[in-house]
Specification:
Layout: H1 3-16, H2 25-35, H3 43-50, H4 54-63, E1 67-69, E2 75-78, E3 81-82, E4 88-92, E5 95-99, H5 104-112, E6 116-121, E7 128-134, E8 137-142, E9 147-150, H6 161-164, E10 171-172, H7 175-184, E11 189-192, H8 193-203, H9 205-209
Antiparallel strand pairs: 1-2, 2-3, 3-5, 4-5, 4-6, 6-7, 7-8, 9-10, 9-11
Helix pairs in contact: 1-8, 2-3, 3-4, 5-8
């Protein structure tokens, strides 16, 4: 295995730890699937979808960080998928959704088992970014030489992954934008879109294939 492959595997292993929902993958996937319908998700809806007691579902979600709720305590964002607008638009099945960061758009289609149309912007060049991502991978991207920024993982806090990590993960639309971003973020790295997708595939493997948590 090459040094590059080993480096990517290590990064994926580190990022896998930012997905606590992997401890009960079926529940996490069910929550994502319900969110993808475009409406806030209540504990009762998730319990009915998974055929579990509502109290059990509520307790599980309470133990996971980064489950965002509205004023009625219904879930509006989880594991990168959001109903609240962000810089990254993520259209699934004709429904307008959003993601916390650029990287989320690359792994969520596999978790949802649905293709997505992605619209974003490079924050340095202001160039528009468009992708078509299906469960198997990136079907199309514009510009073709698209890259994704990742901050130093020492800055990532699982307790608030959006403000410590996701806010630094962008699509970069030109090589000079990648160099500028690296110059401003010591310890960070920039991956091409294919490597970023592979990191997502590896980091979310337990979410895609894992079993329910022991009762």
């Amino acid at each position: 295995m090459t040094a590059q492959a080993l480096s990517l595997r290590a990064l994926a292993d580190d990022l896998a730890g930012t997905f606590p929902g992997a401890d009960d993958a079926p529940l996490a996937r069910a929550l994502l699937a319900l969110l993808a319908r475009g409406e806030p998700v209540t504990h009762e809806q998730l319990a009915a979808e998974t055929n579990r007691p509502a109290a059990e579902v509520k307790a599980a979600l309470a133990s996971w960080p980064n489950v965002h709720r509205d004023g009625r305590d219904a879930v509006i964002a989880f594991s990168g998928l959001s109903l609240r607008p962000t810089k990254h638009r993520f259209d699934v099945g004709g429904r307008e959704l959003f993601t916390w960061c650029a990287w989320d758009t690359l792994f969520l289609p596999a978790l949802l088992e649905q293709p997505a149309d992605v619209r974003s912007t490079c924050p340095l060049t202001r160039m528009p970014v468009r992708l078509r991502v299906d469960p198997a991978g990136i079907a199309d991207a514009e510009p073709a030489d698209l890259r994704v920024s990742f901050p130093a993982l020492a800055s990532a806090s699982t307790a608030d992954i959006v403000e410590s990590f996701c806010c630094h993960v962008h699509f970069l639309a030109a090589p000079d934008a990648a160099q500028r971003w690296l110059g401003e973020h010591p310890g960070g790295r920039v991956l091409d879109r294919h490597d970023a997708h592979e990191i997502g595939r590896r980091a979310t493997a337990r979410l895609r294939t894992g079993a329910a948590a022991a009762g």
